[in-house]
Fold this protein.
Amino acid sequence: MGSESKAKAAQLSVLSKYGVLADFTDVEEVVLDRALKGRLSASASKELTFAHWRDQLLGPGVRLPVARFANPVPGQIRLGKLAIGEELAASLKSRDRQLQARLKASELEVMRLQEELQELRQTKPPATLLEPIGDDARRLKYWYHETTGYLHNILWEIKEVDGHIFDHQGQLNRDYRQQLVEIILRALNGLAALGFFIKAELCDASSKEPYLPSVMLHHNPADPEEAHLLKGFAFVVEDVQPDVLVAASECLFLGRALPEIDKQHRFNCHVNISWSHMVELNEDELFHLSCFLHKLFEALARSNDGRPRGALREAAILCLVLSSTAPCMPARLQQVQALSLQDTFYPGHRPFTSASSKPDTDASAGKILEHLFHTLHALVMR
């Protein structure tokens, strides 16, 4: 240790052992080493003079000041009569005993808690995190994690809008739209890798000509010879404003914007998802997936400049809730008897009979939250 640290250590050592608060700042290192060793016993030092005590402890001729509210300390005074040092030392020793007692009590408490924890581990085995049964369900779980991870990133930045929409707020909305388009495109590519066939298209919904060209968000068709064997679902998200169409075009065509569009124009987003028998997912998984995708596209449709941010926030939150309560996710896998979203609100309904079937994928916010409460209740009561 350095000389300064050694001087402080010697000062504390002498104070605690002999009750003398001495100043070691200007003494040699060899003197500090003698003070730290403290070979002179505390009981024997009480009858020594201050000068004799210094000679025996520190070496002949060593002089050092001592803290005391009086005149300079003469060498012939008894060490035990340095009252102020004795009182301070007694106080420090008493405090040290108290701290040692508290430390001992804390150590005993830690040992007791460790014993209780060991007993609990022996009586109740730890819950294991269950994995989905089947490779497709396991891959779907990872797909949910990846898709919703980006939704978490934008959720905290969504702010409410009061009054008119100004240019600055519109620019922020444009950023949300671009992120949502990227999230959806990434999600559709992930589903295609899982074996789904997808067609997602933004189409002009106006009744007057000229009609604007549609924008194909994603299209990976199945083999025409197998089309009649597919099962699937389809839905339409209506009343999409031009802001969304422009953002999608810029993302798909590397920044190439569409011509200026009348803000009164409206579009519909047509989504068709189908799959073959090679996709090994049960109806609960597929129905839950259809509800999640509907809310994901709805979030994109609610990201235009003319809507309050509350609508976009609600759609993003509902997507996150649906992803957490999907049958392939850990919260549901822990509950063997838990009802699925389909069984809770659509008992007996078997929607996926052909690619043209249209199940009710637009689950309301109330139904989604109620299913979340059922899931949490079953998880707590298991």
User: Anything to note?
Assistant: Residues 1-126 form one domain. The beta strands are 197-204, 215-220, 231-240, 267-275. The chain has 13 helices and four strands.
